[in-house]
Amino acid sequence: MTRDIALGQFVPGKGIVHRTDPRVKILLLIAYITLIFCSFNFVSLGIITAAVVTVIALSGVSFKLYFKSLKVIIFIVIITSLLNMFYGTGEPIWQLGFLKLTMSGIYRAIFVTVRIILLILISSCLTFTTSPTDLTDAIERLMSPLKVFRVKVHEIAMMMTIALRFVPTLLEETDKIMAAQKARGADMESGGLIKKVKAMTPILIPLFVSAFRRAYDLATAMECRCYKGGEGRTRMKSLHIGKTDIIGIVFSALVLTGVVLCDVFILPII
Amino acid sequence: MSILEARNLSYTYGVGTPFEKAAVKNLSLSVNEGEVIGVIGHTGSGKSTFVQMLNGLIKPQSGQVFFDGVDIWSKPKEIRKIRFKIGMVFQYPEYQLFDETVYQDISFGPKNKGLPEKEIDRIVRKSAKFVGLSDRLLKQSPFDLSGGEKRRAAIAGVIAMDPDVLVLDEPTAGLDPKGRDLLLSQIMQYHRERKNTIFFVSHSMEDIARIADRVLVMNGGVLEMLDTPKKVFSQAEKLESMGLRVPQITKIMLALKDMGYDIDEGILTVEQAFVEIVSLLKKEGKI
Fold first, then answer.
1. Residue B251 domain-assigned?
2. Which has fewest Cβ within 10 Å: A35, A97, A215, B9?
3. Which of B84, B93, B112 has the CB atom closest to A180's CB atom?
4. What is the pLDDT of residues B9-41, one digit of tens each?
């Protein structure tokens, strides 16, 4: 059951998106997200949609996985688009009590739905194509200017790496403990909410105990290898901006210009 | 009479993903009441998957498991009842301890089974005695025990369900030699008194040779051999090709036989070897 989460999963590959420098990918992701929320008419929304579809097609990750990550947010999409539908202004097309359906409401709903879907698709694309270590590495580099303000950038990145590293381990551990308690006749399926919560104790306590044990072990192991924070540390794999990155940047710059031009010259719909 | 029967069991992990891997392929066997089955196999040979199918923790994708002649999955809602009859001790079971005291932890299984209070008390104390836990330890928190004591407490927690079949997945892994011998003899003592069926998964050929009535050899998810320890361990080369080995003493005796001495090839323990060598020397008139 714990294996079905697609959001935030890394899928190894060798495509152009995989090869792009993680720092570039993060910056481009931020640019795309800004664009998604800055497209106010159908033409600019169309351009950004086409761009996102191109990127996820190039990523070489199966569309099935993208659908899986969309499944998680389907409820949010439905609720927000319904709310938006009835929040428009202007002539109502259809009315039921205080609920007024307007043309602007429908446009709004369409925009919100498309925006959320694009948002999930493009951020999934980043996590699907970038390994957790690359990701934290890139975050550390991008945040390094903050060192001036005494932000412990290296420590934050290290904590993220460790947390991500232990997600699968703890999931596996949970499965194991669950199996062991089920073998002792633990009943986790039947009963009301309170009974179900109570039934979790035999799983949570051993899980916490083992998480602490792992943390101590890891701390000892790091100290044994003379880990003392980021000061003076060098990297085995240093990041370089290459040809693929330039292609990505140029492509995104074109999309950016397109969207901005459309926004300027075509009347906004919402 | 056969108490547990497996028919054409198969299980594949990650069906439909790039990580698809067949863990168990078309496995059939029948086990008699009171038998001790030693299970050996290389890491990843499907032993753990197989034993978890026996008590319904993993549902086989094809094939059936019969307990006392009844398919355990015939009523999926009552699969919990099967788990009280087929007890399962996992690898490193000490990590499943959770309750405030050892006593309460051992009583988790019998409580789930729905036994009356008095019966629970009796069976908890009895199980603790089987694995050699004193009354003083029963009152302590399981997290204050030593590694070996924790292991014992966890095993007692499964024995306390009074299962007809007990599956032990590497119960002696990570224990010191003394703790190993003690635990092994306690399990055998329990087996002699309770007369139930035991599956004993282990990487220690010496342990298997000492206690098993029959040895089940798994390789790549397939049941490779199922026979008496004597017959299985006489096929040293075949076992070694599967990444396993025979008990050290058996290896020595097989080497002696290769040198031309007239020795039985199914020697499994040092005691047997001693008797065999003495009788050989006597025959040759050397003593």
1. yes
2. A97
3. B93
4. 999 987 766 677 888 999 999 999 999 999 999
